[in-house]
Amino acid sequence: MSDPRPVVCVDLNGVLDSYTGWKHEKHWDPPRPGAGEFLRDLHDRGFRVVVFTTRWADDAQAWLAQHGLDRWVSEVTDKKPAAHVFVDDRAVCFRGDFGETLKEIQRFRAHWEK
């Protein structure tokens, strides 16, 4: 039987970590303050947490374990799963209006960009 909990996909870089921009595949920034509590709260509220990242899954899993965050995460993937919601620093939420979405895309900056 599959896990019936609604899935929340959480991006690693820029959400769970204190992202300072891409440097190289071996560079990892430390966790963002509150990341562990956020993952725990999602878990405790009945969500299945899936980390959705473009990084290698084994490397991301090791980073999560190194920082004690893996206990709240059910899966790490680079494939877009069906989910209740996505939490990402590079997302634009489509609210039914293509014109407004295009404007939001044009003015978009991730929170960590200057």
Name some characteristics of this structure:
114 residues, Rossmann fold, globular, 4 helices, 4 strands, 13% strand, alpha/beta, 4-stranded parallel β-sheet
Describe it.
With 114 residues, the chain is an alpha/beta fold. The chain has one domain: 3-Layer(aba) Sandwich (Rossmann fold), CATH 3.40.50.1000. It is 31% helix and 13% strand. It is built from 4 helices and 4 strands, in the order E-H-H-E-H-E-E-H. A 4-stranded parallel β-sheet has the order 3-2-1-4.
Which helices and strands appear, and what pairs or packs with what?
Blueprint: E1 7-10, H1 12-16, H2 35-44, E2 48-52, H3 57-66, E3 75-77, E4 85-87, H4 98-107
Parallel strand pairs: 1-2, 1-4, 2-3
Give the gist of this structure.
With 114 residues, this protein is of the alpha/beta class. The chain is 31% helix and 13% strand.
CATH topology (level 3) name: Rossmann fold
Please give the number of β-strands: 4
Helix/sheet category: alpha/beta
The count of domains is 1
Separate helix tally: 4
Name given to the CATH architecture: 3-Layer(aba) Sandwich
The SSE order reads EHHEHEEH
Distance between the termini: 46 Å
* CATH level 4 superfamily: HAD superfamily/HAD-like
Please state the overall shape, judged from the principal axes of the Cα atoms.
Answer: globular
From the alpha carbons, calculate the radius of gyration and give it in angstroms.
15 Å
Helix content: 25-40%
